[in-house]
Amino acid sequence: LGSWIAAPPCCCVQVQVVQGFAYAPNFITKTIAETTGQEPLLMPGTGLGPNSSSEDEPQNKGQLQLQPITTRFPPEPNGYLHLGHAKAISFNFAVSRMFSNGKCHMRLDDTNPSKEGQEYVDSILEDVRWIQSGITDNNSGGKDKELLEEDKGPWFGPVRKTSDYFELIHDCAVALIESGHAYVDSLTPEEMREYRGTLTEPGTPSPYASSRSVEENRAMFQDMRSGTYPDGTHVVRARIDMASPNLNLRDPVLYRIKHESHQATGDAWCIYPMYDFSHPISDAIEGITHSLCTLEFEDHRPLYDWTIDTLNQVSPHLLNGAKPRQIEFSRLNVKYTVLSKRKLIQLVTGKHVHGWDDPRMPTLSGFRRRGVPPAALRLFCERVGISKADSNIDFGDLENCIREEMDGTKPRAFCILQPLQITLSNWPNGEEMEDFEVPRHPKIPEMGDRTIPFGKKLYIERSDFFDSEGAEGSASKGRPPKGFKRLVPGGKVRLKYAYVISCDEIKRDPDTNEPVELVCSYHPETRAGFTPEGEKRVPGIIQWVESTSCIKARVNQYDRLFKEVEPGKDSGDYLMDLNPKSFEKFSGVAIEPSVSLDAMAIMSEIRDQEEFGPADDNEDKLYPSQVAYQFERNGYFAL
């Protein structure tokens, strides 16, 4: 069957779920409405207001000629997306859906070839498609027959890359140089830091800022592009204000030399723009109306505005006068985890986890491998909301969203993690079995029934038997724990959906004295929950599987990766706060046979999808972990 991955144990919380959509934050939509005159749609995700009578009739009839609200998600392809990115994805796509004709672009900020690669590009696109799966609207690039297969997704149009605009970004740098707003600097990195000044002391202009003419700067920049100079010898800097209280405005670097092959452009370039330069230009090129980003970019906004305003002044034809508006919100912080890309890389390279998709990792691929539905992450982002105030969200809030989503969508099954054999001495049918038809979900009859075989030999969970005559009994003077209502020597227990059994004899391992088999008798008159008149109801109910028909599997059970609320805060080293019990492996696990049917079905569908492609442009990619169950009394598990 394969490896089953444990999700958090069940503790069902009944909260109304908004399916398929993470609502846009009020303060952002309010800001957009106030500055553009466009009101958000009343029914998010549908494209229709409550009084609309036609699918083609927009809610805001007077806004048809207004510029579409356009957002974007622009990660750098130098790592795997994590839970913090899920929030950014959810809100960028949500904001675009809340406005008539809104769009959300997918752009890869690929300006640093030394840290980027195709592996990260592929994983990012897969993660964005996955977390937005189940949401379909008119912005879906996947519906565009003209797009290449690798460009299709929930975003508008093709996948865009900053490298697509390298030539135009270069022209923007030339325009700034020719207008005297930028120059080539030859200070060493150490000298540049010294000249920059501090938060309390102004910086000192570079001697190269005034010693070189516009013509010299233009010629040197051309030589930089031609590969004349080695790495680190020259940079292009903006000429702004070395005395500015905002350090980002003290003649920031716009271009640097890097003789490295680029995963998209190859060796066509040996100079690359800095993020703070390429970012606002790329937004302007694409017609992004609103750049939604986290608060650490708030101090960078004056530089973005200076870049666009200056270019629109000296060379208005380059960007056609476009000027995106930036709105900042607080980043996501979650207790018992780390979301720093640097720390996540250390966890992987240091082999503290089993790769980027380790189910304990807060990466989207890790959540997917764990069997977490994307709708659960969207629900979490919706409930966290968005503001400018920092907060540290409890990890339990995320687990509640996962449980809530899975409780309403995943069937139940019996799974015995640590099997103890039961032999029914009075079973009259020899090796023949009896089938029980039981619901796949007790609250959702539409899910149908499943068949559980019952026979002479069964397995129950070892923890469901208290060995009062063994080691655990010796430690407690033969008394089971308070409230224990399951099986004891000479006692009775009900097997769920089946019969009451009595424990008559214990067979033990001669070396360890541990019980290896319980010889029991079953009570045929108690079938399917019936208690005969005059007999006392048996209070304990346990799960079971028939031993000859069950599936044998390996189960990996996962817990939180860190044992401290804020890893590293007290210890000084977040690695010291790793939870040594975050991963537990069970072998020889016994699972009811109905589970194998679902597993084989989805594996067959996955093979067909890989061989023949999706059935249509709206079909989402299938994953084995979509086969998930609530293994009763053990929690949620996925293939």
Structure description:
The longest helix has 19 residues, at 594-612. The chain contains 16 helices and 25 strands. β24 (628-631) and β25 (635-638) form a beta hairpin. By secondary structure, it is of the alpha/beta class. The chain has a domain at 412-638: Ribosomal Protein L25, Chain P, CATH 2.40.240.10. Residues 7-22, 43-64 and 138-143 have low confidence and may be disordered. The termini are close together.
Q: What are the salient characteristics of this protein?
A:
639 residues, alpha/beta, Ribosomal Protein L25, Chain P, 7-stranded mixed sheet, 25 strands
Strand order of the largest sheet: 11-24-25-1-22-23-12
Biggest sheet layout:
7 strands, mixed
CATH architecture of the domain at 412-638: Beta Barrel
Shape: elongated
**Structural class by SSE content:** alpha/beta
Number of helices: 16
The overall average pLDDT, rounded, is 89
